[in-house]
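Mods, move this if it's the wrong board.
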Amino acid sequence: MFSVSTVIFMALTGIICAAVPVILGVIFKIRVKTAPISAVFAGAGAFIVFALVLEQILHAVMLPLVSGSDFLYIVYGALAAGIFEETGRFLVFKTILKKKDAPETAVMYGIGHGGCEAVMILGMTMVSGIAIAVMTNTVGIDEVIKMTAAGRPELEETARLQIESLASFGAMNMALSLFERAMAIALHVSLSVLVFEGARVRGKVWLYPASVLIHAACDVPAAMYQRGLHGLAWVYVTDAAMVAAVGVLAVREYRKMAAKTD
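Not the wrong board. Structure tokens:
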């Protein structure tokens, strides 16, 4: 059975992860009135097209081929995310947002990209978790397992473990989930600034492939965790350090671009 507190924590997590990008966008728009709202929608749209559609098509082909090797799985998974998402940024800055030359465009794009990712990944997971909680408390875990496994006995144990994991969702899970999304949004904003500079400033196009590699490096710890090569704490510590370093670089480059446009 799912407790009331578990459902509340899942609901709060979903609400916060949806509200934070909106709040960030509103605050930045108030502070920088020239920041284009269209860039938020461009960022969200690019994430859907490049990460949720195109990247997933390639995954369907490649993951069965690399899943047998830890090294290939980690390298492919990290590079695929970097290539698709940074290429999406670069192309959008070169096409849809080509007339938006101010660096605040990059920040709004990053908020849209990271915000959409937060809603699609964490927000929808929480919605699904609440639905499973309601069904489990209504008809019982055995019936939910049967529906989830879709008549395949080999999937029933996996379904049971997933439901039991959801049933233990509490304050710590909420804090870690939101911290992870906060880091992701910060990374997307930072990389958007770097790719924007690469797309706009003569001689800085190298920042586009550099951003691909930075993105890939930040995804390596999570990919290693997925393969059981280290614990979750190591992911948070290493990613926090890398995101902070990229953020410092992005702030410096943003200020340079802003000084030139003033």
